[in-house]
Amino acid sequence: MTLTAEQITYLLADNGLLKTGADFKGEVEHLAYNSQSVRPKTLLFIKGNFKAAYLEEALQKGACAIVAPMDFHHETTVPTFRVDDVAAAMSILSMAFYDYPQNQLALIGITGTKGKTSTAYMAYEMMNEATQGKAALSSTVQVITGPNPANHYRAHLTTPESLDLFRWMHEAVNNGMTHMVMEVSSQAYKKERVYGLHFNVGVFLNISPDHIGPNEHPDFADYLACKMMLFDHAEQIVLNADSDHFAPLIERAREDVPADGIWLYARKTDDLERSAEVTYETIKEDLQGSTFRLDEHGQQAEQLGLTGEYTLDMPGDFNQGNAVAAMIATRLVGTDAKAMQKALTTVKVPGRMQEITTKRHGTIYVDYAHNYASIAALLHFVKANEHVQKLTIVVGAPGNKGVSRRPGIGKAVNEQSDVVYLTSDDPQFEDPNAIADEIQAAITNPKVVVHRQMNRTQAITEAIKHSGPADVVVLAGKGMDEYQKTNGVDVPYENDWAIAKRVVHSLEGDK
Ligand SMILES: CC(=O)N[C@H]1[C@@H](OP(=O)(O)OP(=O)(O)OC[C@H]2O[C@@H](n3ccc(=O)[nH]c3=O)[C@H](O)[C@@H]2O)O[C@H](CO)[C@@H](O)[C@@H]1O[C@H](C)C(=O)N[C@@H](C)C(=O)N[C@H](CCC(=O)O)C(=O)O
Ligand SMILES: Nc1ncnc2c1ncn2[C@@H]1O[C@H](COP(=O)(O)OP(=O)(O)OP(=O)(O)O)[C@@H](O)[C@H]1O
């Protein structure tokens, strides 16, 4: 794969990105945004806090041309294309370099404050089932470009940098994949990681205040505006009519997408004013999963042909809404109800509502919930089960990140739990006890019993040990993480799931 000097100039100019061209004559055989991956004949993108030392390394390793912002003042010594927006340029040139792989894939993009990963895995499983293994996935947990384990990668971002995304898409196409689902974070739009990318279907799950702070969004308006950019870039939209801030969402969706491309879904209620093409209601539910009914309303919706009852082997009432969103989206790219039903009984999402049933210590959930909306939704689901006696949560909050989430975590605990073990998450450079103080400040309900145990393994052990057969223990915030970020180092950690399994085994034995 190559890009010639003429192609680079043309693509940058044609997309209105080029400020000053470069006296470059050859062609590039590699693209990179990190000096460490530069090889001879690499076109280097200079973005973010790019240091002079990185530039030196890149030039030594053979970078032959550069795309840099106007305000990058270091001496570059190789031809340099100057642009206003390097991230956008990287996206445009990467998709061309990898031969526009998105055009070979039926592509679904999923956004939302909560549920992106769960919904993406559901859609991935549904499409895989329907195509006999020809679906690809880009999620916070994993990127999967083919069925071979060698094509499974650990993800570092919810939405990869554009260069990595198009490389992975290209690999998926080469591996014979025909469908792909990806998570699209608000940062992906803010940082132009999906600039110029169009989705066959965009899914908007929900929005509530989150990701506001240094290096993320200055305020909620900016967060909302970035998330709504998905509407500009999707042929059809699946939108949750129960989402907070629905009014601006539907208004914007109608500006961007024709009426017959908008698919609203909602939980069934008696409210006749509310209208959605697809509604769903719980038929039965327990701590392991549920059966729900899906109904279609009106001619447009009936084309889907999805009316019926479905079994979902994943706990959490909120996962029914995620499942319905995945069903509509995958239907729009050709998946059938039978494949969907099969997927809903087999899907497992790493670190999301993973359940352990015990003999004498109740039900345990390992779950990635780490802000008010997700912890409140999870605790509400457990509390709604009349058979549950005591609800214990083991929770902390990361250091030097998402600091504004701490009072919300305390609020959710305060509203719905019986016992909390405040513990360490990823403390980074902060004192985990001081983080726990911030969470505890919001726990004012005297009925909530508060314990502190900063050793997370010990906190999990104690919480399970003190739970009975009708109790529930929620291990929140770390999912399947096998490290605790401490003072800038990933300190190895057994993971919540493995610890819980080991503790249950030591308390109850094998059977
Ligand atoms: C704020 C933000 O988006 N930061 C991202 C950005 O960091 P940065 O530009 O500051 O990178 P840096 O590490 O200072 O390096 C600057 C540049 O020098 C390069 N470099 C660096 C080191 C080196 O030796 N040589 C070299 O060339 C890097 O490749 C980079 O291009 O570029 C990095 C490289 O791709 C990203 O890892 C990093 O994401 C950080 C880790 C992050 O936490 N991002 C969050 C805010 C984020 O994007 N989150 C959303 C999830 C939101 C949700 O859950 O909804 C996501 O999509 O993941
Ligand atoms: N639709 C939903 N509404 C509210 N909470 C949800 C919903 N779906 C999942 N959750 C909760 O949020 C947790 C995280 O879910 P998931 O990882 O699927 O979301 P995400 O949007 O990818 O999250 P993040 O942006 O934090 O990576 C789940 O484990 C569950 O507790």
From TrEMBL:
This is UDP-N-acetylmuramyl-tripeptide synthetase. ATP binds at G112, T113, K114, G115, K116, T117, S118. The modification N6-carboxylysine is found at K227. Keywords: ATP-binding, Cell cycle, Cell division, Cell shape, Cell wall biogenesis/degradation, Cytoplasm, Ligase, Magnesium, Nucleotide-binding, Peptidoglycan synthesis. Its EC number is 6.3.2.-. It is found in: Cytoplasm. Pfam families: Mur_ligase_C, Mur_ligase_M. Its cofactor is Mg(2+). Catalyzes the addition of an amino acid to the nucleotide precursor UDP-N-acetylmuramoyl-L-alanyl-D-glutamate (UMAG) in the biosynthesis of bacterial cell-wall peptidoglycan. GO terms for cellular component: cytoplasm. Pathway: Cell wall biogenesis; peptidoglycan biosynthesis. Residues 110-329 form the Mur ligase central domain. SUPFAM superfamilies: MurD-like peptide ligases, catalytic domain, MurD-like peptide ligases, peptide-binding domain, MurE/MurF N-terminal domain. GO terms for molecular function: acid-amino acid ligase activity; ATP binding; magnesium ion binding. NCBIfam families: murE (TIGR01085). InterPro entries: Mur-like_cat_sf, Mur_ligase_C, Mur_ligase_C_dom_sf, Mur_ligase_cen, MurE/MurF_N, UDP-N-AcMur-Glu-dNH2Pim_ligase.
